[in-house]
Every structure is written in C-alpha cells, then in structure tokens.
Amino acid sequence: MKTNTIFKIKALAIFSFIWLFASCTNLDEVVLDEVLGENASNPAGALAAAYDRLGDGTFVDHGGVFSLQEYTTDEAILPTRGSDWGDGGKWRDMHEFTWKSDNAIVGDNWNKLTNGITRSLTAIQSIEESSIPEKKLFLAEAKGLLAYYLYTTLDLYGQAPYRDPMNPNAPLQILKADTQIDQLIKDVEALIPDLANMGEQQTHHGRFTKEAAYGFLATMYLNRAVFKDRFNAASNFNFNEAAVSGTGTDMDRVIYYTSLLINSGKYSLESDYFKNFARDNNNGKELIFAISQKIDYIRNGSNSFAYVCMERNQRTSAANRGTNAACTTPEFFATWDGNHDDPRFQQKYQYADGTWFMNDGTDVSTPATDIVPKSANLPWFHFNRGIQYGPQYGPILLASGSLEMTGNRIKVSPLYMEKSTTTRMDFTPSLTFKNPAQAVFAQNEINQGARIFKYEFDPEGGNGNSNVDIPLYRLGGIYTMRAEAYFRKGSPALAMDDLNKLRTSRKRESLYGNAPGKALTAIDQTVLYNEIGFELYWELYRRPQMIRFGKFDLAGTAKAASQPFRRVFPIPQSTIDVTKQFTQNQGYN
C-alpha cells in the first residue's frame, strides 16, 4: 500500500494499540498492530493504517478474500498436487465445500476483515478528536472504508462486529447482513457530499472517493436482495424491491450509480484488456478504486495472483519462478467455447524487435534485451497472458543459475514439471481426480488444469512482490453491473448494448490485426452470466455472482451439490469460544 505517498507520511512507526475488540482471540481487546505515524492520535497515520489493511494479504493474496470468493467457485481451484498444497486440506475444503468453523482460511480472513473494521473505527475516533484541516475529507474516507470492511464481512460471514468509536464504554454490537445492508447503503450515500472527486484534493484511485462510493453503492444495491433473503432455497431473490432511498427499485439504483461513472468522462475502456492488470497500471484508464501497490520499504506489494498459477519451472528470469498451485475448472473453461478469439481470453507477447512468443512449439528464442528492473542485469522473459492451456514452452534454468541462451538470445524449450521431471508441462483444461469428490492429484498428474495468467508477473522484487495495482472497482466491471441491472429490469437490449461495448472495445494483439471482439446478436441469462465471467474472472466477484444467478449450490468438479447454508461461512469457533454475543450461522452447529 502506498501509504507514504497517499498522506506524505515520512515516519514509519509500528506499534501495538489496544482499543476495540480482538479479531482472533478476545473481542474485548484488540491489538492494532500497524498504525503508521508518530502515535495513534495521528489522524493521517490512523487512516493510512485502515487503507493498509486492504493490502497486506486481505484483497491481494490468493489466501485472502480471494480464497473465499474464487476458490469456492468454478473460476478457481487449488488442488493437492502430489506432495504440494496439502496443508491439512484447507485449500481443498474451499472447493469441496467441506469447510468447518475451524478451517484456517475461514479464521484468517475473519481476522483480517475484523482488523480492517477495527482500524477504520480507530481512524474515525482519531479524526473526530482532531482539528486537522482535512478533517471532513478524512472522516468521510474512514467511514467509507469502515462500510467496505463491514459489507465484505457481512457478505462472507453474515455477521460483523461493531462498536461506537466515540464511546469507550460502548457495548459490542453484532450486525446481521439482512438488517444491516439498508443502513450501510444509507451511510455511504450520506458520505458523498464530503468525499473528494477523484483527482481532487490529492486523491487518486487508491483513495475512497466519490467515484469509489458510486461503485460500492452499485455493488450493494445489486446484492441487496441476496443479503435480505440469503438462504432462499430456490434462489428467487427479489431484485426489484423498492430502493432504500431515491426513486425506483434496487436495479434502478444500480443503473443510476453505474451511469454516473460511465458518463463521467473520467474513465475509458482499455482496448488492451490486460493493461488493467499490468505492472504499470498505476495510471490505468479504468481504475476507479484499487489497492495501490509499490515495491518499496513499506509493503512491497503482492505478486500472489500472478505467482499462484505459474509452474515452478516457468521463469520470468533466473531469479523468479512460479509455485504451481491454482488453476481454473473445466466448467469455467467450457464457458469460453466459441470465444477463444475474445481479446480477454488470451494474449501473446511481442518483444520490441518484433519477436512474438507463440508458446506453440515453434519458438526458438526470444531477445534478452528486456532487463528485470533493479536486478543484476537479468534478462526478462515474458509469458503470455490470459488463460493458458496445453503444452508449455519457455526458458530453462541451468545448473549455473542462469537461463539457457542461444547466442545472445534466451533459448525457448519444451518445459517439464519441476517436481515430476518426466511429466510434460501440459496444462490440460480437464481435471481427472481419482476420487471425483476430492481435488487430489498423484505426483505425475500435477500438470493438470488451465492456468490464469491475467495479472502480470512482476519479477522486480523476487517471486512475492509486485507493482501491479489490484482493481476493486474498474470501468469494465461497472458495465457488467449495469448490464445485469438492465436485464433484471426486463431490458435485455440495453443489457446487450453494454456487453457489446465491452466486447467491441477490447482488441486483440497486432498479430491478429488488432481485431476487436465480436458483438453479441442475442442475449439470455446464460449469455449474461458468461459475459460477466469473461470480463471479471479472478477479480473476487464470482461467488456473489454465482449466488445471484442460483449456481453456487450446484454440483461441479470436486464438489457435490450443496445446501443454501454454505452461502455464508461459519463464524470461527475461536471467536465464538470467547465472545458469547456471537451465535453460529445456521448449518454449522
């Protein structure tokens, strides 16, 4: 998180601050462990700490909120691969729908999100008690972040803790999703007059601006019906209920807020879809609210979304490798049938001398002229982007510790799996588990699964660090929300117009003549559902989408049909053990 540049804080002091409630062991005490600034009464430092919780694993790591929003869906799965990724079954639990209240991922994400609530409340208290010139703006941002953490916690767990930040003796309150969603919407709408327009008052897409609020409000209205009737067995959610405020229905408000963003003139769709996820996307044309990442002495960003799919023998330089963990499922891959020429599906890389990396067995070498930033002159090899499947090719790391060369160029060779050296690196879209109910591969099967190379692998800071800003709201997603709202209001033609705007604005690489995506000629619910996936895959939106469309409970790869209670996660048992105000969510007792 670029907290030092957001608030121009030069001093970094990390210390403990006991205040609200414990997110992991004792909800009567909390250690707020990373406040930036001279002391906890520093309003800018307290607000920076609240922003910082967005990063540091929460929304930027595959084990964070991603694991709950994506590994539980058809877009992502992390199977046990031979001797790797067993970890007590915690990853498989996500996709097999066998998680319990003691699952480490469930508990860790609860801790992160409730710590975000704590930090936001601390910031509100600190700002309220200050007399700084930015008081009104900072207070609105802190309240916006509080709402965002609360909403995410309610979405995932159905409950969230809260205390009045201005009353040191305030009792702990347990907010419930079905009753709190309306208040959250009202709270965020009330903040808009005090928030800055993006670009004003030194704001940018890493700050909670008016535009971030519009995207957030559209999201809350889109999912309000689910929050109010989460366990409806038939998934017959009332998406056209009268709105909390303003005129019309929930879908009317989605259209209103998304239109404010689309018509603002501040954002435009990238013709190169993958620029949204590139290491230089800090000036991205679509980014409305994002987690600003930078390889520096504070946070160093997270490379997790790129690193997690790449195989160990896929090397962007002699100092980098992947980890061979996650892939997508056959179900999601199949939604792209007939759309492999969509610019969002896959993109080949072209070097400055005109060399294309085809990754099809025809490559002999690539230039060694691209150098990893801030490295000892290490040549930088670029893998292709998007959904990668089939046999893989690339550079080989020699025993000397350097990439194999041919003359002054990087040699390209067929690749084999690092931990199964006779197994060809063939990313098969199919997943052939011996036990169909368990996502477990034998050692010679660890190549399986089409991989998602959507986010650019940043080699600058080793395997784990990145300069890629992680979008939370971007213009492409705003179009999908408006399209869904139009469709649910009975205006399929308007929905198709928005989806076609996305399709035809994206263009393929020059290898394919910069051809734009092909327009749809008809639309139904299945087409709409698939198109949202094409635009937003791996962006932490799939679980809510599957619930809205009635697909989350269905059987799939390594997943039996599930009951509606699985639409939320259990409250961690460690929290219930020490805080009697919480009651366990239905189905988990």
From TrEMBL:
Domain of life: Bacteria
Ranges in a coiled coil: none
Pfam families registered for this protein in UniProt: SusD-like_3 (PF14322), SusD_RagB (PF07980)
InterPro entries with a match to the protein in the record: SusD-like_N, SusD_RagB_dom, TPR-like_helical_dom_sf
Domain RagB/SusD as annotated: residue spans: 320-588
Cellular component GO terms, alphabetical: cell outer membrane
UniProt xrefs under PROSITE patterns: PROKAR_LIPOPROTEIN (PS51257)
Keyword list, A-Z: Cell outer membrane, Membrane, Signal
Domain SusD-like N-terminal: 95-222
Residues spanning the signal sequence: 1-22
Subcellular localization, as worded in the UniProt entry: Cell outer membrane
Family (UniProt): Belongs to the SusD family.
Protein name per its UniProtKB record: Starch-binding associating with outer membrane
Species this protein is from: Flavobacterium defluvii
